[in-house]
Design goal:
Aspartate Aminotransferase, domain 1; Aspartate Aminotransferase, domain 2; 11 strands; 3 domains; alpha/beta; binds pyridoxal-5'-phosphate
């Protein structure tokens, strides 16, 4: 006899309780005795984690309000592994701890060990500078657990995200038929775009009777590291084009030989190289791509927002011919992490490659009216991460964005002027967008590093060295609209 078959009569019924409202059949009951039920016992407060807790809510909202109201976000500092381990050790228990205690631990031990990319003094790598509106609306996305997977599940989120994408596609001059999706970052965007480039080429080649084989992609020697990784993942080889100036242009393209073009299916151009802010000659790249019938991908993860700045807009001529473009709102479009826009000239090509096929998903593909965001990149479940940008664009208006982007470019111009006029520093090259490369004659990596450490320990700025043509150089990247000329002067003075 299986336990599941046990039914009880008379006195044995005391072993199990008949829940209120449950029907009984005379002396017999169909309710199983509790002792014999499968699985864990339901406790009365199983839903306690999901109950509204006003104290915890106030605690967190107060913290968030304080963070948002900081006049200047501090740069913050580095973490010490042993200290962090000691602070976190034993935190997780079966019973849990008061929210106050855990938030206190975060504030006292963790927060200061996370460099604030949104500080106006964070000038390393590529910083971030989310608007207050974007940060606040990101909380709405979290609090309402908003996903943006399919039109069926999240029509409003998809429509609003598409509106934000349209702003970016208009800035680039992509046709009305273009479409896209917000993914987690430029790396994810580049990867998803290159998969579409590869599979679209494969289909064309198969139709033309060309045997399947290893495919190749043209990239400049300044392409972002994520391109190399993506090509590795999608099993394509990079054909690296050397650039004399760092810019992929007609001259550099002219060095590509017919032999190198064998099995090439795409070319990747960069609109704002990470290291130096260089925008490739997109007009020449697009003419090259069209004449060879290959896919043109533009990695504008950092530099895409420069499209908003009339002072540099001319540099982007030709971007409108791209087959796919990546722009990261979490960089220069002033959105919170993690948000990258992946845009396609012909989104149907992406859909053909990325749509996941499963019987339980058929329902989201029954209507052909709208593309599902999940069909346009390598992902399925996704946070409606574009809504923070959408809200901020709508609230602040595009002029505020244009001014903020121009400000970063102006800061780079100001820094380069101070460097040029100084007697202790040299400009390595004219600034590209908002990136400045400079040298302190005689300095190597060790000196740049100790300078950076000093700036960080004094909370003056966060900077990181780089290299240019093999030479170690200082590098400053400006994104935050609250970065001032006084800050720039202060930092450059410390190089004396
Ligand atoms: C030009 C370029 N492409 C791609 C990336 C990678 O983007 P993410 O860090 O969002 O993955 C970066 C990051 O700085 C970048 O500057």
């Amino acid at each position: 006899m299986k336990l599941d078959d046990v039914q009880i009569d008379g006195p044995m019924a005391t072993l199990g309780e008949v829940p209120a409202g449950r029907k009984t059949d005379g002396a017999r009951t169909c309710v199983k005795p509790r002792r014999l039920m499968k699985g864990p016992r339901m406790t009365a407060d199983v839903g306690r984690m999901h109950q509204f807790n006003p104290e915890m809510t106030d605690l967190i909202l107060e913290f968030v309000r304080d963070r948002l109201s900081l006049e200047e976000t501090p740069v913050d500092g580095l973490g010490v592994r042993s200290e962090l381990h000691a602070a976190l050790d034993g935190l997780m228990t079966d019973e849990g701890r008061p929210a106050e205690e855990v938030l206190g631990l975060y504030v006292d031990q963790i927060a200061d060990t996370i460099l604030s990319a949104d500080s106006p003094r964070f000038w390393a790598f590529i910083p971030a500078a989310p608007t207050k509106a974007a940060l606040l609306f990101d909380m709405v996305v979290s609090a309402a657990s908003l996903q943006g997977c399919s039109w069926l599940e999240a029509a409003g989120a998809v429509a609003a995200e598409n509106q934000a994408l349209r702003v970016m596609m208009d800035a680039a001059g992509l046709p009305q038929s273009a479409g896209g999706v917000f993914v987690s970052g430029g790396s994810a965007g580049n990867l998803s775009a290159l998969v579409v480039a590869r599979d679209t080429a494969r289909r064309k080649r198969a139709a033309a009777g060309i045997p399947d084989g290893r495919l190749r992609v043209l990239v400049s020697d300044q392409a972002h590291s994520s391109i190399k990784n993506a090509l590795n993942i999608v099993a394509m080889d990079a054909v690296v084009i050397p650039t004399a100036t760092g810019r992929l242009d007609a001259e550099a393209l002219a060095t590509v030989t017919d032999e190198q073009l064998d099995d090439v299916v795409a070319i990747v151009a960069t609109a704002g190289t990470t290291n130096a802010g260089i925008v490739d000659d997109l007009e020449s790249v697009s003419a090259f791509a069209r004449s060879r019938g290959i896919w043109m991908h533009v990695d504008a993860a950092y530099g895409g927002a420069g499209l908003l700045a009339s002072s540099v807009r001319h540099l982007y001529a030709g971007i409108e011919n791209a087959d796919s473009i990546v722009m990261d709102p979490h960089k220069w479009w002033f959105a919170p992490f993690d948000c990258a826009a992946l845009m396609y000239r012909e989104p149907r090509l992406a859909r053909a490659v990325h749509t996941q096929d499963a019987s339980y998903l058929d329902v989201i593909h029954e209507s052909d009216d709208d593309f599902n965001p999940s069909d346009l990149a390598y992902h399925l479940t996704r946070r409606a991460r574009g809504l923070a940008l959408w809200f901020s664009l709508a609230v602040n208006g595009l002029d505020a964005y244009r001014e903020a982007v121009e400000h970063s470019i102006a800061m780079a111009g100001f820094a380069s002027q101070v460097i040029t006029e100084s007697d202790h520093l040299e400009l390595v090259r004219e600034p590209g967008l908002s990136v400045v490369l400079f040298r302190r004659p005689g300095w190597g990596v060790a000196e740049y590093n100790s300078w950076a450490q000093r700036l960080l320990s004094e909370q003056i700025a966060f900077v990181a060295h780089s290299s240019w043509r093999g030479e170690p150089v200082g590098r400053l990247v400006f994104l935050h609209p609250n970065t001032t000329e006084a800050m720039v002067r202060e930092v450059l003075e410390t190089l004396r």
